């Protein structure tokens, strides 16, 4: 049975974007992240999304100062 590709929907002051999700997605203000959010409330390395093999994605906060808003 074929699986559909997972998409991450990101809504920010810059608008809404749909991005493909791989097994791990990095999120933060820094340019090296997969998802770059230009917002002073977002840490340079804010969070990771991981697919742990069960088909579900898990959010891991990287001790960011403002925490998640999911």
Keywords:
70 residues; two-stranded antiparallel sheet; mainly beta
Task: Summarize the structure in words.
- The chain is built from no helices and 6 strands.
- With 70 residues, the protein is an all-beta fold.
- A 4-stranded mixed sheet has the order 4-3-5-6, with no helix packed on it. Strands 1-2 form a two-stranded antiparallel ribbon.
- β5 and β6 form a beta hairpin.
- It is globular, with a radius of gyration of 12 Å.
- The relative contact order is 0.21.
- The mean pLDDT is 81.
Beta-strand content estimate = 35-45%
Q: Which strand order do you get reading across the main beta sheet?
A: 4-3-5-6
Rg, Å, rounded? 12 Å
Helicity level, as a percent range? Answer: under 10%
Envelope shape: globular
Average pLDDT figure: 81
Order of helices and strands: EEEEEE
Helices and strands: which structural class?
mainly beta
Strand runs, count: 6
Question: What's the main sheet like?
Answer: 4 strands, mixed
- Total helical elements: 0
Cα distance, first to last residue? 30 Å
Poorly predicted sequence stretches spanning 5 or more consecutive residues? none
């Amino acid at each position: 049975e074929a699986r559909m590709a997972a998409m991450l929907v990101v809504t920010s002051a810059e608008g809404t974007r749909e991005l493909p999700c791989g097994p791990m997605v990095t999120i933060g203000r820094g340019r090296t992240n997969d998802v770059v959010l230009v917002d002073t409330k977002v840490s340079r390395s804010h969070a990771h999304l991981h697919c742990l093999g069960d088909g579900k994605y898990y959010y891991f906060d990287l001790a960011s100062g403002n925490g998640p808003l999911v």
